[in-house]
Amino acid sequence: xxxxxxxxxxxxxxxxxxxxxxxxxxxxxxxxxxxxxxxxxxxxxxxxxxxxxxxxxxxxxxxxxxxxxxxxxxxxxxxxxxxxxxxxxxxxxxx
Length: 95
What we know:
Blueprint: H1 14-23, H2 27-41, H3 46-53, H4 57-70, H5 73-76, H6 86-89
Helix pairs in contact: 1-2, 3-4
């Protein structure tokens, strides 16, 4: 599977995402922002982005799907309960 920059919703520019990475309050948020940043500035196959960010391919897919569906709040609300369970989003969250 190949994901590229056009697969990421245009909520924020690469510069905005870079600023979010710098201001992130934890490593997990930083990793999630790093996935989005990589897709915006240097699109590569999913496996390469996963390897570069230290995440599994399925985690990268999930991060992108949540970002596309919920926007930047999906990253900012890390650790808080989401309104929908992951299985409720399965049909609506596409990469």
